[in-house]
Amino acid sequence: MIGFINRYSSSKVSPVFDQRYFDQQDSDQQNMEQTLRQLGELLLGAVPTIILLATLYILYTFVVHRPLMAVLAERRNRTQGAMEKARADIAATEARTADYEQRLREARQKVFKNLEARRQQATQARSEAVNQARGRAQEQVKQARVVMEQDKQQAMTKLASDAGRLAGEIVRTVLRPVAAPSQVGGR
User: Is the residue at 167 inside a domain?
Assistant: First the structure.
C-alpha cells in the first residue's frame, strides 16, 4: 500500500483524490475495528457456550461414556470368557471322548484276546479229545489184532489138528484093506 501511495504522490494528482483515498482508508480501518469489536463480542458471548460445551463433554465422559465403555468391556470379557469356556469345554469333551474311545478299543482288544484264548483252548481240547479218541482207537485196533492173532493161532492150531486128523482118516481110508471086490467095482 505504501508503494501505491508513493506512486500516486509522485505523480501530479489532485489533492481531492488523496483525500478520498485517506477517507476510504479511515473508513476501512473503522470497519475493521468494528468487525474486530463484533468478533470480540461474539467470542465473549461464546465463552459461556464453550464453558457449557466443555462441562457437557466432561459430564458426558464421566456420567455416560466411561460407564458405557466399562459395561461394553465387561460384556466383551464375558462374551470372550464364555467363548473361551465353551472352547475349553469342547476340548475337555473331545479329550474325554478320545479317552472313552481308547478304553473302548482296549476293551474290544481284550474281548478279542479272550475269544482267541477260548478258541485256542477249545482247539486244544478238541485236539486232545481227537488224540485221546485216536489213542483209544489204536488201542482197540491193537486189541483187535491181538484177538485176531489169537483167533488165527487157534484156527491154525485147529486146522493143524484137523489136518492131522483128516490126514489120518485119509491114510486109514486109503490104507484100509479091501474087503470085497464087489464092493469096489460094483459087479
Answer: no
Distance CA 157, CA 165 (A): 12
How would you write 105-161 as a 3-class SS string?
HHHHHHHHHHHHHHHHHHHHHHHHHHHHHHHHHHHHHHHHHHHHHHHHHHHHHHHHH
Domain span holding position 150: 2-160
Does some domain include residue 68?
A: yes
Residue 46 lies in a domain: yes
- Residue 80's φ and ψ, nearest 5 degrees, are -65, -40
pLDDT tens, residue by residue, 1-17: 555 555 555 555 455 55
Distance CA 164, CA 90 (A): 107
Sign of the CA dihedral running 69, 71, 72, 76: positive
Q: What is the pTM of this model?
A: 0.37
DSSP 61: I
Q: How many domains are there within the chain? A: 1
pLDDT in tens, 23-43: 778 888 888 999 999 988 888
